[in-house]
Design a protein that fits this description.
Layout lengths: L31 E4 L2 E4 H14 L3 E5 L1 H4 L4 H17 L2 E2 L23 H8 L3 E5 L3 H14 L3 E5 L10 E3 L4 H18 L1
Parallel strand pairs: 3-4, 3-5, 5-6, 6-7
Antiparallel strand pairs: 1-2, 1-7
Helix pairs in contact: 1-6, 3-6
Amino acid sequence: MSNNLYRVQAGPEGYLPPAAAHMGIELPEKGNALVEGSIVLEDEAMQKIAEKILMAKNPVFFPGPLILWAWNEKVIAKATAVNELAKTSGARIIPMPDYRPKYPMINPEVEINPNHPNLTIWHNKIDVCVFVGVHCHYANVALKLIRGGTDCYTIALCGEAGHEDAMISLRDVNLDTLKKLNEIIKVKREELK
């Protein structure tokens, strides 16, 4: 659907990688998603997410404050769905409970520091990471840092418009989206056996 020449791929792309938006990557409309900078149908992106997570050696979900803190019933249900999604896909979970700088005191086995996400990725040898429930402005910065300094494949499950700097980005992710993705991963896992 999109013909952009720039592809958002795993790095390392250098100390100052270009912002994907500056390179012409645009956020998708509702019902669409981004895969490596190209706009595709949401279902196609979900298939690619399932494939990437299941083929990874060390996939990790990075849930942020929007689902870590139980501030209403919808958030609790979404957090439960993310936990189920991680279990289904055989991924670990490393939370991003807040955004205060912790470097050099961060324990990368316990949480991710959005100001230095590359440290957690390097330490844990993460090859695919999934951001979910992270405020957009912090996700954008962290995704760019990851792309710039690591070879980790990034996936953003965004409740808003999505993230240009993720290799795959779904927009408007809600409880139904998470459940659908979980079913797709179950099917894909059986296909890969």
